[in-house]
Design goal:
- There is one protein chain.
- With 248 residues, the chain is α/β, with parallel strands linked by helices.
- The protein contains 7 helices and 7 strands.
- It has a single domain, classed as NAD(P)-binding Rossmann-like Domain (Rossmann fold).
- The protein has a 7-stranded parallel beta sheet, sandwiched between helices.
- It starts with 7 loop residues before the first strand and ends in an 8-residue tail after the last strand.
- The structure holds NADP nicotinamide-adenine-dinucleotide phosphate.
- The site of NADP nicotinamide-adenine-dinucleotide phosphate (NAP) has 27 residues, from helix 1.
Amino acid sequence: MGTLAGKTALVTGGSRGIGRGIAERLGRDGARVAVHYGSNEVAAKETVAAIEAAGGSAFAIGAELGVPGDAAALWAEFDKHADGVDVLVNNAGIGLYGTITDVQEADYDRVFAVNAKAPFFIVQEGLGRLRDGGRIINISSGVTRIAFPITVAYSMTKGAINTLTHTLAKDLGPRGITVNAVAPGIIDTEALDGLPAEQKTGMAAYSTFNRIGRPSDVADIVSFVASEDGRWVTGQVIDATGGSALGV
Ligand code: NAP
């Protein structure tokens, strides 16, 4: 029996990238996994199929985030398949490149709407569905610890996620619900496809292990926090950067 047997998990943005890695891992742990996507239903169905092929159980739910009513729409889709949730992973997110002088107001609003506002209201709308003893895991970023001027607005959204994590952990402790953030460094997802080899070599060098992270590197940490073994960890931002910027 897996550590999450009998549990239901929802992974936003579970169809691709890091979210897919998390969805597949929680599926192997025995959870029934809601694989959320925004527009790419094919990718979500592929992830569901991969979880089922590994002996797990999953279903896909679509809802665009970053638009009015997004959280309610997501939970309405979820409710068609399940009657409560034990593990909520707020993973869906978008990047935004631009320094303080470059960022346009509309892009700023969009990245905050998807990365910070949507998780807030997904939690708010989900609290009645989240069972006592449950887990909320928010995917943050190493850029909240390591300054990257080129992603300043994006980094700020993840700073908001870290504060949400810390504050919710205090609020939900009496229900036995833990709330943690996992903060990846550079992870090998579609965003890196087609980048020149020398650029990837430079990215790998951020980690003290001298390699780019894999979705499974993040998913394995999420699995621990989601499990019973993670019950005494809450309100934390867990670094998942492979030891980036540890020191000179
Ligand atoms: P990704 O490969 O681009 O996948 C993003 C996922 O989120 C997809 O499932 C996508 O669904 C969904 N999504 C994106 N925007 C959405 C929207 N507006 N509405 C609904 N769904 C939406 O992303 P990733 O690189 O794995 O990143 C996952 C998380 O990790 C993000 O929060 C990101 O900030 C964080 N992170 C990533 C890295 C990295 O190096 N990759 C590093 C640190 C932190 P559709 O395809 O259907 O739109």
